[in-house]
Amino acid sequence: MIFQNFAPLAIDTSTNVAMVAIENPLLTAFSKVIAVSFDTISLVVISVIISAYFFYRNQSKKELFFASMMVVTGAVIYFLKELFQRVRPMNPLMAETNFGFPSGHATASIVFVFLLAYLYTKDKSNETRKKVYWAAGVVALIVGFTRIYLRAHWLTDVLAGFVAAALILVGAIFVEKRFG
User: Fold this and answer.
1) CA distance 44 to 144
2) Which of 10, 51, 36 is nearest to 150 (CA)?
3) For 94-104, what is each residue's pLDDT tens digit?
4) Distance CA 96, CA 117 (A)
5) Are 169 and 110 in contact (CB under 8 A)?
6) For the chain, how are helix, strand and coil distributed in percent, rounded to 5?
7) Rg (CA), the chain
């Protein structure tokens, strides 16, 4: 595509080298569990369960909003990966088959956890909101780190996933507040 030869930056290669230096079996096992837990298929299954719960609780607007935003997120990830066609690091601890930019795990997990945080805390106290959003942020950072640690992505792939997720969330919340 247009950006097919999007090479890694110096920060990408130096981060990759740093991940090799800290590699250990426990961190690798933990990172692989996170990778499986937050892959697209896992998040889709969990999203269907959560949407069914919203439907069961007669909260069909939440169900439709949550499910549709996860579908939009998947489409955005696919489109951007095809647009940029960036290759992944050549020394992965966990093989991936598609393009790397942006990180689909980073994008989808952030949209997932922050949409849940948003929907859960709409009628909660500021203190509860802070705690829930802080926890969502920790999850997002863990997922991002593990993608870099497993060398499934360059640092800039993960950062681009964070930016894509933030833009999707801003758009989603705007639409929900305007039309929800």
Assistant:
1) 19
2) 36
3) 988 889 999 99
4) 29
5) yes
6) 75, 0, 25
7) 17
State how far the Cα of 63 lies from the Cα of 77, in Å rounded to an integer. Answer: 21
Q: At what angle do helices 10-22 and 126-149 cross, to 10 degrees?
A: 90
Q: What tokens appear for 95 in the block?
A: 């093989």
**How far apart are the C-alpha atoms of 155 and 102, rounded to whole Å?**
10
User: Any idea which residue has 């050549």 for tokens?
Assistant: 90
- Is the pLDDT at 34 greater than 70? The verdict is yes
Report whether 111 contacts 69 (CB < 8 A). Answer: yes
Cα→Cα distances 108→78, 117, 139, 179, Å: 11, 14, 12, 23
| Mean pLDDT in residue range 135-152 | 97
CB atoms within 10 A of CB 66: 25
The residue count of the chain comes to 180
